[in-house]
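The aim of this short unit is practical: by the end, you should be able to scan a pair of folded records and say something sensible about each. We start with the first protein, listed as its amino acid sequence and then its structure tokens.
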Amino acid sequence: MEVRYNRIMSLISLAAGIVLSWVHFSIAGNTGNGSLLLTAGFLLLVFCLLTMTRPYFTVNDTSLEKRAILGPRKTTYTFESINELEIDNNQVYFNHNGERISVNIIAWMVEKKDWQAFVDKVNLARG
């Protein structure tokens, strides 16, 4: 199952990117300054594009694969059963050889329906 980024977060970054770019061109037209605004606006637009087109993480019965927002980097947590995952206070943990490892997944950055489906899948596996 692919778990997507929160669409509201993506849309807010889109709106902020457009506003900063517009402000840049308004200022640059009058003073020739404001390139920092254009850079920030461009970065927010790229962030929006990436979070709207790439999944945050993928989970199946034997692994959880978290992908970087930018670039090919992936962190894979491999397990024998999904019941080795645990969710406590919206924090995901991976129980491996008796050690509880925190998985760096930020719950508010996940699309709400996807988060609930993920939580349900983990809870169902854990019984």
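Turning to the second protein, read its sequence before its tokens, just as you did above.
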Amino acid sequence: MHFAQCMPAISARPGDAGDGVDDAGFAQIPFAIATGDITWQELTGPDARARLIMGPQGGFHILGRLRFEGFAPDVAVRFRVTDLATGTLFNDPTDVLRRRDRQGLVRTPEGWESVSAELVIFTQIRTADQARGHRVRWDVELEEASSGRRARTSREFLVE
């Protein structure tokens, strides 16, 4: 994916420099999310799908990947997965992952990227049927450690 196709909003503080800051204080940075256990797999279009996986402890998760440019490689990452039909939250959005250069992030020609797939754990479901076959919205938020600036993006897809 080219970043020009995915330009989400970031939270900018008053007085922060940046192109394209809107009235609400949001600007644009290159930030993309995908799925895939070994390689980057796009989550675009109406047929986008991510596989629900049962973990060894019996819980369920999907695999996520992120790629960004414009922030230092030291970020907090938060996920939120919501059922589009019911509004049911599938995960705990207060869980925070910290990713840094060579500690979960690697520099690629496309930007800073997850070294491996992130587990997006569905802590709020007990059976696969509660998620499988449902269309969801996956929101991902980054917070740059050095500045507190935030970026967010999302994808909609079918859980299979």
